[in-house]
Amino acid sequence: MSNKNIENLPWVEKYRPENLEEVHGQDDIVNTVRRFVETGKLPHLLFYGPPGTGKTSTIVALAKEIYGPNFRNMVLELNASDDRGIDVVRNQIKSFASTRQIFTSASSPQFKLIILDEADAMTSAAQNSLRRIIEKYTKNCRFCILANYSHKLNPALISRCTRFRFHPIDEESIRSRINNVIVREKVDIAPDALNALLHLSQGDMRRSLNVLQACKAATGNRDEVIDIDMIYNCIGAPHPQDIEACLNSILKDDWTTAYLTLNKYKTLNGLALVDLITGFIEILQNYELNPKNRIHYLKGLSDVEYGISKGGNDKIQSSAIIGIIKQAMEYEAGGVGGIASK
Ligand SMILES: Nc1ncnc2c1ncn2[C@@H]1O[C@H](COP(=O)(O)OP(=O)(O)OP(=O)(O)O)[C@@H](O)[C@H]1O
Ligand SMILES: [Mg+2]
């Protein structure tokens, strides 16, 4: 790809790891698969876990390390955008798997690699027919199956692979990757905005890169520093001070005022009830409460959340939230020694 094309790529692609060194926050997995390759004993692999944690990047980087310039001939990559019904499995995968590479150098391995990305979206008929193909062509092929949810895969398919779960990437690993991008793209971002970005990404590196790029685009060519408000606005997450204001009103004001305050924030700042619940729970976790009481309000709020997901009436659900939290505080005041912030 020419330099100009690379410059125009979205950052998630521009900064996709080129080799295993650049895969951050998945050290155990990277070390293990590397050892497999060094000893020449690569099993069939299954990578699963939440989005943006490096599954596709790791296998592509691994394939590049194994095959070097021969990468294109030795690897078949199929993802959800390709048709992967039973016919493709029968024909395309079979014909790729059944041919042996004649001109292999001594250093390059004899086996080919078939990457099935987003395999949880494959039909069950296609997954079923894969089982036999995997066994039949193990001599000259290795399969790597990538998925978000392992429970959507055929158990017999899973049992043919060595499983690796990609966990959400820890904040420090995202920070070191993002810092790299910040320097290379000359992004000006305030330290608290960077912390908020890492926290809100929730272990999804793709999300953090996308948000950073959107914020950088919003500043344009002006010398503007990316601040915490821009991060919240871009992610569409409610600002912590809004959540605190709502919770304070529930804790301190009478019922009607609390209801009106909640409504005001919902309409003016576009807060969603579900986000409010998540925010309240995060703050209330730092309160010292009687465990029974905590279970009680958590159960209540989770019921409300379920009600909202089923299309429950917004007014009734917000009243319920106020009621649950107020009741918890009343129990607490009448029971074990009141509440105190940690
Ligand atoms: N562990 C990581 N180290 C470095 N960059 C990463 C990592 N994980 C994700 N990224 C960045 O995020 C982008 C998306 O990652 P990738 O495609 O590997 O995610 P994925 O786990 O396959 O997600 P999905 O389940 O949605 O397919 C990459 O292009 C890369 O820029
Ligand atoms: Mg992927």
Fold blueprint:
Blueprint: H1 3-8, H2 11-14, H3 27-38, E1 45-48, H4 55-67, H5 71-74, E2 75-78, H6 86-98, E3 112-116, H7 124-136, E4 141-147, H8 155-158, E5 162-165, H9 171-184, H10 191-201, H11 205-219, H12 228-235, H13 240-252, H14 255-268, H15 273-284, E6 287-288, H16 291-309, H17 314-334, E7 340-341
Parallel strand pairs: 1-4, 1-5, 2-3, 3-4
Antiparallel strand pairs: 6-7
The site of adenosine-5'-triphosphate has 24 residues, from helix 2, helix 4 and helix 11.
Descriptive keywords:
342 residues, binds magnesium ion, Zinc Finger, Delta Prime, domain 3, alpha/beta, five-stranded parallel sheet, 17 helices, Helicase, Ruva Protein, domain 3, single chain, binds adenosine-5'-triphosphate
Number of structurally distinct domains: 3
Order of helices and strands: HHHEHHEHEHEHEHHHHHHHEHHE
Helix content: 55-70%
Question: What small ligands are held by the chains?
Answer: adenosine-5'-triphosphate, magnesium ion
Q: What name is given to the CATH topology of the largest domain?
A: Rossmann fold
Task: Give me the number of helical elements.
Answer: 17
Task: Report the end-to-end length measured between terminal Cα atoms.
Answer: 55 Å
Computed Rg: 25 Å
Mean of the pLDDT scores? 89
Estimated structural class:
alpha/beta
Q: Beta-strand percentage?
A: 5-15%
**Which CATH class of the largest domain?**
Alpha Beta
Give the spatial strand order of the biggest sheet.
Answer: 2-3-4-1-5
Taken from the alpha-carbon principal axes, the silhouette is globular
Name the CATH homologous superfamily of the largest domain: P-loop containing nucleotide triphosphate hydrolases
Q: Which CATH architecture of the largest domain would you pick?
A: 3-Layer(aba) Sandwich
